[in-house]
């Protein structure tokens, strides 16, 4: 399962004049510029940055994706009244250059908890998208004292109950170098691919302006290790069983036309978690970008203020 758009970012050049969305002004100092910092944890040097003020929301990306791949338009919405914290997993992007050699999402969850400790973040709401949802689930289960509430977007509960993506989505996910059209077919439904190209233009402009870090280094060894960790995730029912005792409120959100993570997975999570809720929105795997206004409203409704 991938949320990665790095493969097509290089095709998006000379596009700064396209589209109508501009970086929002945040405060008297002018347009927001990302200030990346490095946190030293026992296992890794982890790059992170923050944006906005208010209750903290820790944002966890998907397989092979850096902290620069969140849609800038979504970040602008969420940063109006929340402190967003974005990070690069170990071995990815601006974090330590050595490839990640972990074997489980428990390890990534522990890395995230160590980052929280290193930056003095005692407790936060957590948003995990795609593989980031696996990490968010493990974080909430292993370190519930750190998690105020969790939003699980476009993800699955693991184990035998998991509904796999379409055959075409699985084929694309197995390709070493998928095309722009193939990646967009996973992220945006038919008839909305233009919105996917607009998303790529937003990334390009935001990177050029400094609104997001110039952070698109994705070592293949780290991606391969993340993908390898998905096999035991899907073979074991442990996470799904543990969700039944989760003491953290959870919002399971998905796209009604997601070919990568069918919405049944979100229904299973919402039904399994004692304090679970479900939100299904139009769109495919990138539904939270395509329907960002509706998604932001769901977060405002669900997350503690």
Helix and strand arrangement:
Elements: H1 6-9, E1 37-40, E2 45-51, E3 56-60, H2 72-78, E4 83-87, H3 105-118, E5 124-129, H4 131-142, E6 147-153, H5 167-173, H6 180-187, H7 193-209, H8 220-235, H9 238-243, E7 250-255, H10 264-272, E8 276-281, H11 287-290, H12 292-302
Parallel strand pairs: 3-4, 3-5, 5-6, 6-7, 7-8
Antiparallel strand pairs: 1-2, 2-4
How does this structure look, described?
The longest helix is centred in the middle third of the chain and has 17 residues, at 193-209. The chain has twelve helices and eight strands. The radius of gyration is 18 Å and the shape is globular. It has one domain (30-302): Rossmann fold. The model is unreliable at 1-25 (pLDDT under 50). An eight-stranded mixed β-sheet has the order 1-2-4-3-5-6-7-8, with helices on both faces. The protein has 305 residues and is of the alpha/beta class. It has helices spanning 6-9, 72-78, 105-118, 131-142, 167-173, 180-187, 193-209, 220-235, 238-243, 264-272, 287-290, 292-302, and strands spanning 37-40, 45-51, 56-60, 83-87, 124-129, 147-153, 250-255, 276-281.
């Amino acid at each position: 399962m991938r949320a990665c758009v790095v493969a097509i970012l290089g095709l998006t050049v000379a596009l700064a004049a396209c589209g109508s969305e501009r970086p929002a002004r945040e405060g008297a100092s002018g347009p927001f510029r990302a200030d990346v910092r490095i946190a030293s944890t026992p296992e890794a040097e982890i790059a992170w940055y923050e944006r906005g003020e208010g209750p903290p929301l820790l944002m966890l990306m998907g397989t092979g994706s850096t902290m620069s791949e969140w849609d800038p338009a979504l970040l602008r919405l969420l940063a109006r009244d929340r402190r967003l914290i974005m990070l690069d997993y170990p071995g990815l992007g601006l974090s330590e250059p050595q490839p990640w050699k972990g074997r489980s999402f428990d390890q990534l969850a522990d890395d995230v908890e160590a980052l929280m400790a290193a930056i003095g973040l005692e407790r936060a709401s957590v948003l995990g998208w795609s593989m980031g949802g696996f990490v968010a689930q493990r974080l909430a289960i292993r370190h519930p004292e750190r998690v105020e509430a969790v939003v699980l977007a476009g993800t699955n509960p693991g184990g035998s109950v998991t509904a796999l993506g379409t055959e075409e989505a699985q084929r694309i996910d197995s390709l070493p170098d998928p095309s722009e059209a193939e990646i967009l077919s996973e992220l945006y439904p038919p008839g909305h691919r233009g919105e996917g190209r607009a998303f790529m233009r937003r990334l390009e402009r935001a990177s050029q302006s400094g609104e997001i870090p110039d952070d698109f280094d994705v070592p293949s060894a780290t991606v391969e290790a993340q993908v390898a960790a998905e096999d035991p995730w899907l073979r074991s029912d442990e996470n799904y069983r543990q969700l039944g005792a989760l003491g953290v409120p959870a919002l399971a959100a998905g796209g009604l036309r997601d070919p990568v993570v069918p919405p049944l997975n979100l229904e299973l999570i919402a039904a399994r978690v004692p304090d679970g809720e479900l939100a299904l929105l139009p769109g495919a795997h990138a539904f939270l970008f395509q329907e960002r206004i509706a998604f932001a409203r769901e977060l405002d409704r669900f997350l503690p203020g």
